[in-house]
Amino acid sequence: MSFSSQGFSSDIVRALTECHYEKLTPIQQQAIPQIRRGNDILAHAQTGTGKTAAFSLPIIQQIIDKPKSLTRGSVRGLVLAPTRELADQIANNIKSFSKYTNISVVAVYGGAKMSSQERKLQAGVDILVATPGRLNEHLELGNVNLTNLESLVFDEADRMLDMGFINAIRTIMAGVSTHPQTMMFSATSSSQMNALAQEYLRKPQRIIVNAENSTASTVAHVVYPVEEERKRELLSELIGKKNWKQVLVFVNYKETANDVVNELKLDGINAVLCHGDKKQSARRRALEEFKTGKARVLVATDVAARGLDIQGLPHVVNYDMPFLAEDYVHRIGRTGRAGQQGHAVSFVSRKEELTLVQVEKLIQHRIRRVPLEGYEVDSRDALLSKMHSKPAFKNRQSRTNNANDQSSAESRLRVMQALKKRAKK
């Protein structure tokens, strides 16, 4: 099925052709007709399935079909994203899709100067892409007016909840006096996200491209059992012996990221950093070096890596297992995209076996374990048998946030760490 068959203008089709968009992906085939009909959408699809085009192309076409004069600070279409990287990526994609139109696209997010963003917002904007926190700042200063909003998209809505943005979202929605067509996209599902959908969507069309909380069939999963203190050594050895050329490595802490990069450089492996202490310009440079092959490894924390779009990425390594099982799905969604083969590698220490069980339960798949000579750890079965008897394991849940949770993402991480410590006692 081609994009021209969806009734898009010749200007949009021309831009899509230049972007090498030829056939609609499954999420686009299902979502675009529903959005064109004006329906609200609740969609579950993996990263890299073409979600941005699915929601942005109908919005662009609607603005073309119904031209309106913009007033100071006004916005016709709003896309909310959890991180600056994702917001920047979405805005760049929309600019590419609308390059032959007069549609204005602006991205606002933390880490960039408020004054430059304010200047771009003054005349009004057709499509605004924003992180919730920075958008609220502009709303408080009167730089943005959402009273006449026509289209609203929550991209990676599950992640926004995980990061504690529910109150920021409610503040934003309080400034919307219209009933915009609302679309919610996520890779995973939870009761909290369903509650959010029920609050803001009107008779939504539910679209499920993959089974909820599933991983792409093009990704091969493998686990390497390893003691915590041997992980850096193992990473260098695998990259070297297996000759991995492009590897995205996820860690849970900025300090760990710094240590891993230093270790890799000592072993002659060019690596770059992407975490919250780095300025946006430095993170962009690191990503560009990684994409162009100047750097072989990109080491990133979860927050910094959201929205990274790396074509043909072959390897994702979970150096640290994520605190939430759902984040495993998000992390490995960076590889195996657009039908290409990918490899998801996880290092699992003794204390992370519980997380691995949660991940396997979530994705309904037992991950292949590969014990390596020289990196042996104690029996997994013996450890799990002991863990199953612990109350911390029996009462363990995946997501702990809810629609009324006012705690930050950091506090939830501390809770998960405390549970792990209790399980060791």
UniProtKB/TrEMBL annotation:
It holds the Pfam family Helicase_C. Residues 218-378 form the Helicase C-terminal domain. GO terms for molecular function: ATP binding; hydrolase activity; nucleic acid binding; RNA helicase activity. A motif (Q motif) lies at residues 1-29. One of its GO terms (cellular component) is cytosol. The keyword Oxidoreductase does not apply. Gene3D superfamilies: P-loop containing nucleotide triphosphate hydrolases. Residues 388-412 are annotated as: Disordered. Residues 1-29 form the DEAD-box RNA helicase Q domain. Residues 388-397 have a biased composition (Basic residues). PANTHER family: ATP-DEPENDENT RNA HELICASE RHLE (PTHR47959:SF13), ATP-DEPENDENT RNA HELICASE RHLE-RELATED (PTHR47959). This is RNA helicase. It comes from Vibrio inusitatus NBRC 102082.
